[in-house]
Amino acid sequence: MKERWISSWQSPSNIALVKYWGKKDGQLPANPSVSMTLSRARTITTVEAGWQEQGGILSVNGLPDHPFIPKLTRVWQRLSEERPATGKLSCRVVTENTFPHSAGIASSASGISAFTLCLAEIICTIEGRPAGDDLFFREASGYARTGSGSASRSLFGGFVLWGKQGMVADSSDEYSVSVNHLVHPALVHLGDAIIVVTGSPKEIPSSAGHLLMNKHPWAPCRILQAERNCLDILDALKQGDFIKLSAIAENEALSLHALLMSSEGGPVLFSPETLQVIGKVRKAAGEGLNLFFTLDAGPNIHLVYPMDEAGRVKDFITREILPEIEVEEVIYDSTGSGPSRTGEIASNITNE
Ligand code: PMV
């Protein structure tokens, strides 16, 4: 007779407005970052865990060698160090995304945060501790960080800061914190139209990307730039200043790609369509449309806008972008409220 636990959570992806790029030992960020949590782009995960002499991740979607397992194992190991009960838990993971793989949406952020919530909830249940309070999410953010830095930000809705930053008292390199309390009402809910450009996705694994910063001659300046941009973007969010927010977010997106292109090996992750879309966005913004672009480490473009511009932005995409630029699809998303349970935690005794 063996005891088993089942926990299910869904967790969103996020898009960084100030980018985390480069890390220090212990999966700590070289610089603070600020992100917006998405609403529709989510991962839904169920973890079934039971006691075994040797714990670990047994399978993901039935596959013992699923490519996601190394990242989940890092989270499992971190939990085992801090919460010894984890060390004898073996997990079967079932997970699915609500968005296509090629969309350039950070599936590691949503997938790792969803898995972390499930495992942390199981551990809390075993230890008889509450799961779902503020401390639970803060701890989960720290655990998720070890699988993927950006995942630590997906534990919270709205706008999120990861990394020590003087303006936010409880900020830390170890975990992310919500900064919603300081966001002006005009900016609490923004649209994000993700323009997925045609062609094979150009990407480098983010772990390899972060490593490039260790030898980058601009690294010290980059850290200063990101710290300044964090301070300024928090101020823009506070003042409700969309123009300032736009300028910083675009500067960050282009800086990320400039850092990539000037790294060893010079990865170029733009595609011609990326630059075409950027040109159109800049022209439309110059003519009075409230929107800005941002990019992850890939060719797809996020167009961010206040929700009261949603109609005009959709019109702009339909009339200016789709007829002229090769686009695979457009995913309309917006600021989201963070993770939630998709089922109550269950525990049962089996004969296995
Ligand atoms: O969380 P990681 O290790 O996948 O790195 C994320 C890096 C960027 O997506 C490029 C920027 C960010 O802050 O999300």
Explain the overall architecture.
This protein is an alpha+beta fold and 352 residues long. Helices cover 35% and strands 28% of the residues. It is built from eight helices and 13 strands. The protein has helices at residues 69-82, 107-127, 134-147, 206-212, 219-239, 242-261, 272-286, 310-321, and strands spanning 2-18, 23-24, 28-29, 33-51, 56-60, 89-97, 159-162, 176-178, 190-197, 292-295, 301-306, 327-334, 340-350. The strands form three sheets. Strands 1, 4, 5, 6, 7, 8 and 13 form a seven-stranded mixed sheet that branches. It has a four-stranded antiparallel sheet with strand order 10-11-9-12. Strands 2-3 form a two-stranded antiparallel sheet. A hairpin with a 3-residue loop joins strand 2 (23-24) and strand 3 (28-29). Helix 1 (69-82) runs parallel beside helix 2 (107-127), helix 1 (69-82) crosses helix 3 and helix 2 (107-127) crosses helix 3. The longest helix has 21 residues, at 107-127. It is globular and about 65 Å long. It starts with a strand and ends with a strand. The structure holds (3R)-3-hydroxy-3-methyl-5-(phosphonooxy)pentanoic acid. (3R)-3-hydroxy-3-methyl-5-(phosphonooxy)pentanoic acid binds next to loops.
